[in-house]
Design a protein that fits this description.
The protein contains 20 helices and 32 strands. By secondary structure, the protein is an alpha+beta fold. It folds into 3 domains: about 210 residues, Jelly Rolls (Sandwich), CATH 2.60.120; about 120 residues, no CATH class; about 325 residues, Rossmann fold, CATH 3.40.50. The strands form 8 sheets. Strands 29-27-31-25-1-32 form a 6-stranded mixed β-sheet, sandwiched between helices.
């Protein structure tokens, strides 16, 4: 069937109503929604007694270790609390400050842990006395004592010390060290005084450093362990110290050469989308040289047109660029025929070898410089991650924050790999999805980036012939791929979670492991991908990894950009995710809870990302919404769906919808890192005022399980907000008849008030979002009417040039 362009839903014409969003009083109160366990105060008192004794002992040791000769102007001790539930910032921030002398600095574990600076020691002593009275009453049975109720909210506490601040072993430290600075907005002068003295100290010690003032962090170049320890033990403005190497490639002797290869790129002179390849360089003598933007400006380490990474110097950035610019079909054809490129590549070199230490500050600054020089670039690939996996529910790193901020401020989309788990070979003897229960399979920074798109590896190796990997099917995730590190079930009750809060976003072909013998695995040629080498005399070589899944998805994005150049990057993201499916990736019950954390939204359908057809129409809504507002758009279905005998009554249409938006992230608060709640759903043909009523008053739900894509009614103790959400709906004839062929698409927004201090000055008041809705006729004998008829009954327009080429041979690709 012919390819057809996607359709734009004209927001102003289609919009029916905008009202204030408010939840009905019939909704269950949020504190009743959580499962409250009866507290055993005896055990809590035991814990707090131990914590109190350790606090005083550790405080004495910390004071003994301070170097008085450094003349640091202020000392500020910090306490890390674990609470019985989520800390309600809007209610207790001022109380803790005014009554207890504690200023909130940061929150972790989605609000269940909080770091506080002791600003007033006299008030804090009163706080400790209340804790002591609670201990005496519960453990020593001094029933006449009374204590303040706030003590019951605390599960444990401890003094912040060097072992909590330093995220690595000092004796293994090397290269660059990042110091993330405390946020103390109510006592900023104390911080600036200490920081000024720290700068002098670093100069005296001849430590080369960079101060990233907008993002509140320091980059130190090769400090000794002794100097770093002295800094942390004396300058009380360091929240965390990190020293993690980056890696792009696996060590080992593989990369089998296939054969010399010459490539005839027939459209190298066309005006194609440009993809920024953040990697080890792109070889200007390789087969993709005609697609390389002639610009050597952007490098942190060496010539960006030289790529000597990987075993036998086959390169890493070069094969990544080959996949990003040429895509899956060309690689499936072994690049034998005349090759039609989808994009060009700008080399952004950050490493020579693919391993080692990279200045995150310089890297991100360079990306901003790229956008100044090439503002038309929307798409980047980044297949360089930390070599250390994230712990379960670990908060966002400063590096992730910088990339999310960059994506938001520049309207960009970075395609980031999950990183490879190289232990998978030795840890397994067969394909076992249960392996992903292990924390060591978690993603690596910055794959948790929310504004960008994270890609894991599917086992497919882009080859004709039988599948030769170990996975249960080529669409299944490869064992070396990594899973999201967030497990909300460890934080929230069963009734309070967010099914859309996970990484990766999708999985794509990255190759697989093979059987070396009956009991061991290895990298085997038959399961690997043919890739373009940086060495022209070699041509193609074989390799696997999430590094190669990622540029394939960036290639799809470039195809979308070429077809629809005016679309926002978040719309491109939504189109890709909306096309992905988990249907061919069944997980057994024992691992079913890992499905999204391993496979994301699933394996991508390249065609659906790019095109509609006569039986499947993709509608794109790009609009804005303000805090505390609800927008309603009617979606009208053609009359033939209810007036024609379609051969069945149930499941005649399938609706798949994905919402994406980017946001300006907030540091120091994992729960409110994304402070913007935007949610959507599809409802009955009801008025906006009825849609926000509870089911007790008016039941507006089309299906019992079809609710808001995420829940925003927990205001004081919110769930973390996802900025990518997806839902599916199977439509029966009776559904259309009952609603007179019209459903209501509703989108609502709120901005959380669970923020340290308040939203930064100048924080946006209006929030753009992208909503992609695919409506597909699923009748036995498809009519070929849907695409044309749905335009008649809605305010739609075909996107882009009607005469543009829509004959891309993408629908013939079955991989």
């Amino acid at each position: 069937m012919p390819n057809k362009k996607h359709l734009r839903l004209l927001s102003e014409q289609q919009l029916e109503k905008v009202i204030r969003m408010k939840f009905s009083p019939f909704y269950v109160k949020e504190n009743e929604e959580e499962e409250e366990e009866s507290k055993n105060y005896y055990h809590v008192a035991q814990t707090l007694r131990i914590d109190r004794e350790r606090f005083f002992a550790n405080l004495a040791m910390k004071n003994d270790r301070r170097s008085k000769t450094l003349n640091v102007p202020h000392y500020i001790d910090h306490v890390l609390f674990t609470f019985q539930g989520q800390f309600v910032i809007s209610d207790f921030f001022k109380i803790y400050y005014n009554n207890f002398g504690l200023e909130a600095v940061a929150f972790y574990d989605f609000g269940k842990k909080g770091l506080f600076a002791i600003i007033d020691r006299v008030k804090f002593k009163v706080f400790l006395n209340e804790v002591h009275k609670f201990i005496q009453k519960e453990l020593e049975h001094k029933t006449e004592l009374e204590y303040e109720n706030y003590v019951l909210y605390i599960a444990s506490f401890k003094l912040l010390q060097i072992r909590e601040i330093v995220k690595f072993r000092l004796d293994q430290m090397q290269g660059l060290v990042y110091l993330s600075l405390m946020n103390v907005p109510l006592n900023y002068r104390l911080k600036t005084d200490i920081l000024k003295r720290l700068f002098t100290y670093l100069d005296d010690k001849s430590i080369v450093f960079k101060f990233d003032e907008p993002n509140d962090r320091l980059e130190l170049n090769n400090p000794t362990p002794e100097i770093l320890q002295e800094i942390i033990e004396n300058f009380d403005i360091i929240e965390s110290a990190t020293n993690s190497a980056f890696t792009t490639v696996r060590p080992g002797e593989f990369n089998t050469v296939t054969r010399e290869q010459g490539i005839n790129i027939v459209n190298a002179n066309e005006d194609l989308p440009i993809i920024g390849i953040i990697d080890t360089g792109i070889s200007s003598t390789s087969a993709i040289a005609p697609l390389l933007i002639n610009d050597r400006t952007f490098t942190l380490n060496g010539d960006p047109f030289i790529d000597t990474a990987n075993f036998q110097r086959n390169g890493h950035g070069t094969p990544v660029a080959g996949l990003a610019t040429l895509g899956k079909i060309n690689h499936l054809n072994k690049l034998n025929q005349d090759v039609i490129a989808d994009a060009k590549a700008l080399s952004i070199k950050i490493s020579n070898s693919g391993t080692g230490f990279i200045s995150e500050i310089e890297l991100v600054n360079m990306l901003y410089e790229v956008k100044v020089k090439y503002p038309q670039i929307k798409i980047f690939t980044l297949t360089t991650c930390y070599d250390r996996h994230k712990t379960t529910n670990e908060t966002f790193s400063d590096y992730t924050f910088l990339l999310d901020k960059f994506a938001y401020e520049t309207d960009s989309l970075i395609f980031i790999c999950t990183a490879n788990n190289n232990d998978a070979i030795n840890d397994n003897s067969s394909y076992d999805l249960g392996y992903f229960h292990s924390e060591k399979t978690n993603i690596c920074t910055p794959a948790d980036s929310m504004n960008n798109l994270t890609v894991g590896a599917a086992a497919d190796n882009i080859a004709n012939g039988p599948f030769c990997g170990i996975a249960d099917g080529k669409e299944f995730p490869s064992l070396f791929s990594r899973k999201g590190n967030i497990d909300l079930s460890l934080i929230f009750s069963r009734n309070k979670s967010n099914k859309n809060y996970f990484k990766p976003d999708v999985i794509e072909s990255g190759g697989d492991l093979g059987y070396y013998n009956a009991t061991s695995l290895d990298y085997m040629d038959d399961a690997m991908i043919d890739l373009i080498s940086a060495r022209p005399e070699i041509g193609l070589f074989k390799d696997v990894g999430t590094s190669f899944s990622t540029p394939l998805v960036a290639n799809i994005a470039a195809k979308i950009q070429k077809q629809y150049p005016e679309l926002h990057p978040q719309t491109i993201k939504a189109l890709i995710i909306n096309s992905a499916s988990l249907n061919k990736i069944p997980f057994d019950a024992s691992v079913s809870k890992l499905k999204n954390r391993v496979s994301g939204h699933g394996y991508i359908d390249n065609f659906k990302s790019l095109f509609s057809n006569e039986n499947s129409a993709t509608l794109i809504l790009e609009d804005n919404i303000c805090d505390d507002k609800l927008k309603v758009y009617p979606i009208n279905f053609p009359q033939y769906l209810t007036q024609t005998d379609l051969g069945k009554q149930r499941g005649i249409v399938k609706v798949t919808a994905t919402l994406c938006f980017s946001f300006l992230p907030l540091k120091n608060n994992q729960l409110s890192y994304n402070p913007i709640h935007i949610a959507f759903s599809i409802f009955k043909n009801h008025e906006a005022e009825d849609i926000i009523k509870s089911n007790v008053e008016v039941d507006s739900k089309l299906k019992a399980g079809l609710t808001w894509s995420q829940n925003g009614r927990y205001k004081s103790k919110p769930i973390p907000y996802a900025n990518t959400q997806k839902l599916e709906l199977n439509v029966n004839v009776s559904d259309l008849v009952n609603e007179e062929n019209t459903f209501k698409l509703a989108v609502h927004c709120l901005v959380t008030d669970q923020i340290i201090g308040e939203l930064p000055a100048g924080y946006p008041k209006e929030f753009p979002f992208s909503l992609v809705i695919n409506i597909e006729e699923t009748t036995r004998n498809q009519t070929g009417l849907l695409y044309d008829e749905i335009q008649v009954v809605n305010n739609l327009e075909v996107i882009g040039d009607l005469d543009a080429d829509t004959t891309i041979e993408i629908d013939s690709l079955d991989v």
